[in-house]
Specification:
single chain, Herpes Virus-1, 31 helices
Length: about 850
Amino acid sequence: MASFEDYLIFFTAVNKQIILDEDNGELQIKTIYKPILQKVYDNILKATIIFLPHCEIAILQVFSAEPLLAKMLINDCYVPPTSSGFNYTNTVLGAIFAISGLPKIPGGIFEYFQKPMEELSGQLESNIWNGMENLHVQLHKIFLHLLKAGPEVKHKTLSWLGSCLEKNAGRCKLWNNEMSMLGFISDGFAINLSAVLLRLCQPFISNTDNPKLLKIDPTYCAVQIHNDEDSRERGVHLLKLNDSTMLLPVDDDSRENNKSLDKRPVAKGQFNFITECFYMTQKSLEIGFAQVQEKMTSINQELAIMQQTFVEAQQSGSATSEVMKHINDRMEGEMTKYLSMKAALLEPSTLYLLSQFQKATCVWLTQVVLDVNKDFQSSDLQSYCPNKFNVIEFPLPNIVPLTLKCIPEFILENIWRYLTLVRRFHSRSLEEPGFTLVSELLNTVLIFMTSNSRVRNPHLRARLAECLDCLLPHTDEDSSVTNSIGSYYREMLFLKHPHRKQIVYALLDVFVGIEMTGQSVEFEQKFNYRRPMYVVMDYLWKLEEHREVFKSLAKDAENNMEAASPPLFLRFINLLMNDAVFLLDEALTNMARLRQMQTAHESGQWANLSQRERAQNMSHLQNIGMTARFDNILGKETINTFKYLTSEIKSIFCHPTMVDRVAAMLNYFLCHLVGPKKKNFKVKDMKEYKFEPAEIVLNICMIYVHLGESENGEAFCLAVSKDGRSYNPQLFKQAEDVLARIGGASLIVGITNLSQKVSKLAIQQSNDEELLLTEAPENYLDPIMSTLMTDPVILPSSKINVDRSTIARHLLSDQTDPFNRSHLTMDMVITNTELKNQIDEWIRIKKCQK
């Protein structure tokens, strides 16, 4: 049988002879070979991922390798600029890309995994993977031949790839759905396109020290291309990337006001193929992998709801067989989609290349950040590629390269999506490459998390914090035992990585940054961002070296309580307290509402309602239950964080700025959970709602003991006694009774001792308050808290006197004067020594009179 080379030699010779013999040789070649291409296209349309069109692909490989036929092939695939993205599927190359285990058109039929509840999916998945790998290898050969077929064919091939990506960028829009996706290529096409581009990247992503990586120019996406000739001369075939959201915004809104005023650096020279291939691959991942991954997540959530509905319908016994069959059919349909998408995303050879690509991306991003010695204001630089591999050192350079204004956010988002994908479905792909991959990932996460000077978007920085959670040692999802090698690499990441001591600071900075951006971050979204951060903090606290960083930050905060900018750890615990109060309060409110609705349902009150009203009530009950579950999970996490922090960090929680709030929070929740109101939160299936009051009580009592037994314990006990809202003499006795029932006997002695201290101080405090507050002159009272000031300060703008601890607490969340909203920081307040002396003398006289 003739080889590929034999066919190539034969067709090359034939075409040369046609050119020699005919006046219009190229037209004759087109006339001869056009029917062949049409037949190839028709046959490809009938192919499947299991039964690939091997003969047709072989013909296209010959076409792509012979210069005249390659030109004809790429010309035949031309798609007019006014066409939709889907029209790329109607070309012979596009038709091959569309071969997949997923539907060829949005909303089409999923051909595989039709009986997901009955058949074993492993063998089918393996067959699909074999087909995908074979297809990708053959497509890669075709495009490699086209790119080597001469300058004109290379230009047209890159234009085809770039235009396909640009015309299908709408797949990334938030509004996409099955109907709106009809104008774009299919999910399978997009994933196959990524796989081929990843293979084209292989020469420069194989090693982290590959000098070819430094040939990627960071200013590619800032270029504005006006026509085809411009595209050819500049080496830019992926258009409109200059409109992307960049890591750092363009100065003075110039992009919106006047594009000619765009102050971003742009290389003057021609961009190389490595740069183009890199950015095309990044864009393909955004329109392909990212969208399918998002759909999978959505389907997974829908399946969980359907499963719950199915179980509830079974248990109630009221659902008809038709209803049960309908639910089951829907579950099967969604599971078919889920398994098909999972197979498409996790093809092993592509996943391996994706790991290599993301590792290379991390190395390149790091070098761009460290490349600070260029003249970024120059308009004559031929290239902005990093000159050499620089060593990472923290703190990072104060200079932030302006090239970050040219790099789209989706490049970092692709790293985040990759980590969330492999963590959930294929953790081995993160571990098998060895320590280098996870090490480079951590470098990049730390560099861009540590400050908003390199990434302005708080949502993106929060996603980088989620990347830390993905890098924690986890049990291998594919077995019941821990993957020892993978766990070893992940553990070493937090024990031996050269920049591991930056992790705690970076994590807390992002935690605070979500709240302090001045941008709108929805409550639920904010807590979703913080949820993985609690997991990472919990892990870090158990490692002595990282625990010492927490303690060092706390000590620094205590030493700088009145700094112009509140210290990081102080802002962190202030927000942690805000979260705890909000979440636990919401959780208890919703648990009480659940109890009321369950009681009404069980007592027969719903029986008198119409079917529509009963359905509405049931839907309302489910929504409240979901909200309560969410609040319970995160509320428990915040209290748990307080528990372990206060085990070794105590004095800052007892500082005058914080202690009253800490005491009031603990009293409020303990009162609700051990007092007479505790029965209001008892519902059916408490585990379903993740409501674990016993654990919360244990943790709260531990916090009481931690702070009550500290060096500053008296200040804490005094604050507990002063809380008139929730504290009463029976509170700790009620807590002791509950502790005895829930396995907290070891805490009873500590709580008893605390109770005695608090009772003694409460009596003393009551006498003092009665004496002082009833007779205190109004100008001695804090205008915000209505308490006697002990350390009055003057606010420079409004000239009003307030207690130092009161204004310090206010400025943690809002750096303005509360009386006129002018800017205010702690270093601006003026100590009112004269008023303090007057108050102290007045107190002394009153106590003597008593």
